[in-house]
Amino acid sequence: MNPDRVAALVARWVRFYTRDLPAPIAERRIGELDADLHDHLAHEHAGRKSSTRIALGLLSRMVRGLPADLSWRGQHLQDRFPTLEEAMKKQKNAYRSAVGVALAAALILLWGMGAVGLIGTEGDNADLMYFGVLAVGAAGAFVARFQAAGMARALIATAVAQALVTVIALLAGKHQSPATSIVELVGLNGFFVVLFLGSAWLFHRAEPRKPPVLR
Length: 215
Fold this sequence. Notes:
Blueprint: H1 3-17, H2 23-46, H3 51-75, H4 83-115, H5 129-143, H6 148-171, H7 182-206
């Protein structure tokens, strides 16, 4: 795994969740993140850590920081509306964020399969199982007709399918390959599980709430 590519992915994520915020706020956040990434990579390289370990560390930081990033975005949304309109806007923003996270996870998964291979050596047929993971998500989305509640369930099913691939790969002994350690196998797949579950949580947030029944 290439740390520079992972750093570029983190930078794109920051630009994604700072979109449509006031320019000074977004630019300050992006600048802070770029400086932090530069310092982090310099420190890790100085410590003579392997590229894979550095890349996994960056992925781990990104995953652990997702809730804080989304919370930061919510605190800096510019507009304020009356209660009903504000709730509708929050649901719309949550839905868009959920779609963005799900698509990002799918694209990163496809890129990983094609560029470096996620299980065993590059080109290992075991990677084909990930097409099944994506098929679960796509089928669930169509069955749900892209409604928030159904999409949340579809993304949970996708996360379960991703975890199942990990279990199958471990049972098949793929972690014994020189190119894939058990830490890499569990860590990488855990990264995608967290992304899919995060998307499911955002879809749940986007689900319209029924008004309380008055008696």
